[in-house]
Every structure is written in structure tokens, then in C-alpha cells.
């Protein structure tokens, strides 16, 4: 996908970890994930001039065709181009079959002065992530042949520790290889990931690493073991400037109270 507005700031919304179910009333830790996604979308629709939506994985909790169709209905209903990548709860085979030939699963997006690269870090049957050799090859080729001077790389699993012992064990297991690939090029401005269900913004190896809150349940930052957080569902706004600078902030759905079962010790 390519759009020529290279002199303008590009506004992107990152949504992640929606965990939809086959059933419309499916709940994760007591929260109806479809309802929370709908509320996030309502809030996004009040933002002016959004250029595209990036969904960084765990779109579905159960990998069902119906959950992906509902996600597509809700997100595409905004009338904004959206691009998705899989997480550890997703069934990428199902996604690929349902949306074959659609733009939603494009792995490379060119917009403004930016190239966006969408990576698949999921491994069937595993919770942790790893970039296959094919994905690393795609990353290298995409960076070598980048059509714009600024690059945003997106994947589901976090490639850096976030000081939560339980979730750091199930992050990207070949992060060293990932950063070695990025280090060969000076065009990578930031990495956007999901998986950790919390806000994150730090510099690692000279590259900004950012994560967004989930559109449903949040995880407590700095927790040794699994713990749901009281923070509300949300999303991240990126303002990608033509000179490579990034403005970004997190918004949350704070006007309603969602039901959460804090006694649950896993997901």
C-alpha cells in the first residue's frame, strides 16, 4: 500500500490485544471484549484526520472465523484503512483464508515519509514469540529497499524486557537477531508492539520501543506474577512527522466502568 503525502504528518492509531471470541458475549477476565472494543472505536472516531489503523495482534482469543469477521466489521466500519498482524492467540491460517486478497494483511505500507513493516512473531501452539528466518529475511529486504527515509516496525511480542517477570518470559525469544537486523540500517525510528497489555515507551539500542494498552483488560506494570490492572482499555496515537520525529500519546476509555475479575491468574 502506498500513499503520497510525504510532506505531511501521518496520524496512526495502534489498537492491540482485542481478544474477541466466537460468542458476542465472550469475556476475558470478566470483561466483555467486544463491548470494550466498541467503546474504543467510538472514541477513535472523534479523532480528526486519522490516516490508518494498525492492529498489533491477539485480535482473537479463540482463533474463530466469527471473531475475525466481527473485528473486520467493527474496525473497517470506521472507514479508515487498517492493517493487522497476528499474535500468539490468533490463528493466522484462519486470518489468511478469510482475508486473502484484502489489504488488511499487507506486510508493508508506504505512507507519507514513512515505511511501515508488519512482522509475524507468532508460533503456532506457543505463547512466546520468535521471528522465523523467512520473517527476518523479509525484514532485511524491506529495510534494504525501503521506499521512504523513516521506518516503523510493528510486531506482536515485545522485543525488550518490561520489568514484569512473568510476561518477559514470553516475549520475543530471538530479540537479539531482530535488533542485529535493525542495526544495519539508520532508517528505523521506532518499534510498535502489543502483547504486554500496558503502556510502554523506552529507548533500546537507540530505537524507540512503544506498546499500547489493550482494547480490553490491562496487566499490572512491574508485576512478578500475572495480575490484571485497574487501568481502562485504550489505544495509542502516533503522529509520524516527515522529518522522522514521532509524537505519541495514549488515550483510554474512562467514561464507563468495565467489569474485571481480579481473582483470575492467567489468560
Structure keywords:
single chain; 267 residues; alpha/beta; Purple Acid Phosphatase, chain A, domain 2; 7-stranded mixed β-sheet; 5-stranded mixed β-sheet; 6 helices; globular; CNP_phosphodiesterase-III; metal-binding
Structural class: alpha/beta
Q: What distance separates the N and C termini?
A: 35 Å
Which sequence of SSEs, written as H and E, runs from N to C? EEEEHEHEHEEHEHHEEEEEEE
Backbone shape: globular
The percent of residues in helical segments reads: 10-25%
| Approximate strand percentage | 25-35%
What value does the Rg take, in angstroms?
17 Å
CATH class: Alpha Beta
Counted by DSSP, the helix tally is 6
Mean pLDDT comes to 93
Count of beta strands: 16
Strand arrangement, major sheet: 1-7-8-9-10-12-11
Enumerate the spans where pLDDT stays under 50 for 5 or more consecutive residues: none
Please identify, by name, the CATH architecture. Answer: 4-Layer Sandwich
Q: Sheet with the most strands?
A: 7 strands, mixed
* Number of self-contained structural domains: 1
CATH superfamily: Metallo-dependent phosphatases
CATH overall fold name: Purple Acid Phosphatase, chain A, domain 2
Amino acid at each position: 500500500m502506498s500513499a503520497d503525502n510525504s510532506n505531511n504528518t501521518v496520524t496512526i492509531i495502534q489498537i492491540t490485544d482485542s481478544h474477541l471470541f466466537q460468542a458476542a458475549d465472550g469475556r476475558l477476565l470478566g470483561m466483555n471484549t467486544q463491548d470494550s472494543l466498541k467503546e474504543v472505536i467510538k472514541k477513535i472516531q472523534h479523532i480528526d484526520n486519522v490516516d490508518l489503523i494498525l492492529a498489533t495482534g491477539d485480535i482473537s482469543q479463540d482463533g474463530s472465523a466469527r471473531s475475525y469477521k466481527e473485528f473486520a466489521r467493527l474496525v473497517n466500519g470506521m472507514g479508515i484503512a487498517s492493517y493487522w498482524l497476528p499474535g500468539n492467540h490468533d490463528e493466522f491460517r484462519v486470518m489468511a483464508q478469510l482475508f486473502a486478497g484484502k489489504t488488511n494483511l499487507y506486510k508493508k505500507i508506504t505512507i507519507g515519509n514513512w515505511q511501515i513493516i508488519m512482522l509475524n512473531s507468532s508460533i503456532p501452539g506457543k505463547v512466546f514469540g520468535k521471528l522465523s528466518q523467512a520473517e527476518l529475511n523479509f525484514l532485511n529486504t524491506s529495510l534494504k529497499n525501503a521506499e521512504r527515509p523513516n521506518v516503523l516496525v510493528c510486531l506482536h511480542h515485545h522485543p525488550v524486557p518490561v520489568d514484569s517477570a512473568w510476561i518477559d518470559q514470553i516475549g520475543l525469544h530471538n530479540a537479539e537477531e531482530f535488533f542485529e537486523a535493525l542495526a544495519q540500517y539508520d532508517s528505523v525510528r521506532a518499534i510498535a508492539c502489543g502483547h504486554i497489555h500496558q503502556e510502554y515507551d523506552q529507548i533500546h539500542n537507540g530505537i524507540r520501543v512503544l506498546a499500547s494498552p489493550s482494547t480490553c483488560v490491562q496487566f499490572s506494570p512491574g508485576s512478578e506474577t500475572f495480575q490484571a490492572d485497574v487501568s481502562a482499555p485504550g489505544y495509542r496515537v502516533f503522529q509520524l512527522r516527515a522529518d522522522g520525529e514521532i509524537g505519541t500519546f495514549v488515550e483510554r476509555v474512562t467514561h464507563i466502568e468495565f467489569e474485571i475479575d481480579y481473582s483470575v491468574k492467567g489468560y
